[in-house]
Write a structure and sequence with these properties.
Blueprint (H helix, E strand, L loop, with lengths): L16 H8 L14 E8 L15 E8 L1 E3 L3 E5 L11 E10 L2 E3 L1 E3 L3 E6 L3 H4 L8 E3 L6 E3 L1 E8 L15 E6 L2 E11 L2 E5 L5 E3 L4 E8 L2 E10 L1
Antiparallel strand pairs: 1-2, 1-9, 2-8, 3-7, 4-5, 4-9, 5-6, 5-8, 10-15, 11-14, 11-17, 12-13, 12-16, 13-14, 16-17
Length: 230
């Protein structure tokens, strides 16, 4: 986006709205392949039932997030792969998309790039208070890897930074992968590659997913670079 124009805009006064629309029209639309397999990251999860709701009226857990690839339709069978907290055990959960809603209202089928909420037939207690944040929704033939030892390509940010030396072996790092967030330890650093151990935590991911790496500076996590999981 280095050549994108900067257009001063005042929407309430309808100033430069046409210019913004014209600039958006210059963007290249990515090729959305029809054979992409479903992948959706969970950034929110809810139990929408009010206390005292009769059992026959209970609704399943609601999952909110962005559709990274493929498409999702009402009635589709889905698999939820959770991230694993210390002491937890890995288990994928099968469910069904009962109802889908986007910012435009009810949807029967949605494609990549849209943020949606999905009503499922999951036990609502599993989704309560964002308990499933960091999980990934896929189809049964497209399950993610779930690992605690990660290998990635790594490139530090090129701009002037507060870091006076490169990542050191044994240094604590904060990783953001899809909607998962975990702290690990740098195990090995070679040219262009980084190995991180998350200990008892495991996260779901696919090879090729982007990872954001932060280092601690004066007790504050600071963006250090990014990479791709291998």
């Amino acid at each position: 986006f280095s050549n994108v124009s900067i257009i001063p805009t005042f929407a309430n006064q309808n100033i430069n709205i046409g210019e913004v629309v014209q600039e958006i029209g210059k963007f290249e639309v990515s090729d959305r392949k029809n054979n992409e397999k479903l992948k959706m990251q969970i950034i929110r999860s809810f139990d929408v039932n009010n206390p005292g709701t009769d059992i026959k009226d209970l609704k399943g857990g609601v999952l909110g997030g962005g559709l990274n690839a493929g498409k999702l339709s009402v009635g589709d069978h889905i698999v939820l792969t959770p991230n694993i907290t210390p002491g937890g055990k890995f288990k994928s959960i099968k469910s069904t998309a009962v109802y889908i809603q986007s910012e435009f209202g009810e949807e029967k089928s949605v494609g990549r790039g849209l943020s949606i909420g999905v009503l499922t037939n999951l036990d609502p207690s599993l989704a309560r208070r964002d308990a499933l944040v960091g999980s990934v929704i896929t189809s049964e033939d497209n399950l993610p890897r779930v690992e605690s030892k990660l290998k990635m390509s790594y490139e530090p940010i090129k701009e002037k930074t507060v870091f006076d030396k490169p990542i050191q072996k044994g240094e604590a790092l904060l990783l953001n992968v899809l909607s998962s967030r975990a702290v690990g330890t740098a195990q090995d650093i070679s040219k262009g590659e980084l190995y991180v151990n998350l200990g008892e935590v495991s996260i779901p991911f696919f090879s090729g997913d982007r990872v954001i790496v932060s280092r601690k500076v004066k007790n504050t996590w600071t963006l250090a670079g990014s990479g791709t999981l291998l």
